[in-house]
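Q: Hi! First time doing this. I have a protein sequence and I read that you can turn it into a structure. Is that right? Here it is:
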Amino acid sequence: MTVSSVDLPLWTEAAKHIDWIQPPKAVVSQEHYRHPSSGPNPYTWFPGGTLNTCYNALDRHCKHHPDRLALIWDSAMVPAKKQYTYAQMLDQVQTLAGVLRSHHVRKGDTVLIYMPMVPEAVFALLACARLGAVHSAVFGGFAPKELAKRIDDCRPKVILTASCGIEPKRLIPYMPLLRSALQIASYKVPIRIVLQRPGILVVDIDVKGGDRDYVQEMERVKQSQAQVLTCTEVMSEDPLYVLYTSGTTGAPKGITRTNGGHAVALRWSMDYIFNVKAGETMFTASDIGWAVSHSYTVYGPFLAGATSVLYEGKPVQTPDAGVFWRLLSEYKVKVMFTAPTAIRAMRREDPAGLLAKKYPMKHLMAVFVAGERSDIETLNWCQHIVGPKCQVIDNYWQTETGFPITSTCLGSGKKEVAKFGSAGKQVPGSSVVILSEDTNEELVEPNTFGNIVLKLPLPPASFPHLWNHEPSYESSYFAKYPGYYDTGDAGMIDEEGYIHVMSRTDDIINVAGHRLSTGSIEQILLSHPKVVECCVIPLPDPAKMKGHVPMGIVVLQQDYAHYTQHEFSQTILPDLIKATRNDLGAISCFDLAIVVPRLPKTRSGKILRRCIRDMVEHKPVKIPGTIEDAQVLIEIETALYENKFIPTKNLSLATKSKL
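A: Yes, that's right. Below is the predicted 3D structure, encoded as structure tokens:
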């Protein structure tokens, strides 16, 4: 393998926008600095360079623009609003870093962050970076068993948490969940720092047991003047954070991000992909425990000297489907980043977009969507709402890559235009290739369906290894296609270079010898004006002739949510069957679908297709700890049972234990 495919001039120039303590010796090297074995991905970005990510995100901006607005916190749950300048942010982070240092957190140590969408969660990430410590953020309210796995894997010296999180219809006390996790975990965490939420929930602090009050700890450090004023120097290849993927069984996979490559790539992306400059505002609607929020609530905007909006609430019901439009208008947001599922929820609650008309959004230039496949109808609806001066842009990336690998780029200077149905074109610095499932050869003909891979080396923001699980790194991502990173997704590149991500490779349905993408069928179903969400799964053929046949799980628009299965089958299903056969031909064999009130999703909005697939295949349903509401699985199982797609209901008791 060579580094000939790397755009050296691009990353050489991008690295100039980072303040290095010691400049790197090269842009990329195949020499291993931390992992001497050759490994499947033997590349180090900006080797020999030293820096501090927190310094680049805060300190350097305070030298010239200390009063520039850095963070806006808007909570629909409390409700409350706060704003922090870069100088105020730096003060909070220096103090919290002092708290962590007083509890013996040093360079290379890990800190677990288990907090809701509050400013203190952002301070925590940056305080760890300031010390050279490795943070691992887990979204608040995570199930104790899964939280315990992460505690055992990353072995944190300190856990930062809060008394509670707030959902639209319930309060989630965090301490009982955390204490249960600590009882399950083999590793014992010596210190837990708890942010109380006065007026909502205040919990007892067990000082002898290792609990500490966040506010009291901050005050102690201020009074003793023990703030951390100087950032710790780290190597470019030193880890910045570990972020766990939402596996359903076994040990979690900890995605690591290094300091140097991450800082360069994120800073570059703010210019080239998002065109958000210093002093401009970006709103990323994602939980702090997910990669999107790490990259574009925290690190991306602050590395660029921009303003970031942190929102505690939902896209609907807090108080209504107009809350995102209010945020965009009130804070003069230039770019928003959200998931398609959030836009679908808004569309379902307010299909005519009447609430959006209350809020002028003249500063808004783009709405980026990612996290799952975006259907054309949802994108068209959003485009109609925001108007012709704003682009709606689907883009594609993964937790592993750290930033978009395909997108329409606003800062390229080429006047790129989004093409709905695709995830944009290859972003410079990434090498996206389609491989044949049968021969593993690169497919160069346009519109040829295959497996999506990235040619090595991966872009600088990508993960260089898994935390404590190097064998899984190779087997999960590189063993199938040596020299490539396997995304696990299938799709194609069209004649204009736009990349179409159709489905996960394990969601391809083999129907009577024909390979069909579930994503292509979902796209057709979602084009129906009465359908707002759906997923398609392979159902074992009841006639035992075709192996599997596609089955739709459909959610209807609010005005039609009262439809029974019979009404749906008589009025809407025939349209869906006709549309599918018109587009894909009779080989699609699509004629089965059920209507349900909602789909099972993770907290980040991904539809849990695997759980439904396990139901219809009569397998044990593996419920991930990241599920938003396990009750939805009971609803799905009931619908499948009542429509005679499964013979028994076995899920309820096991699922209720997770609620």
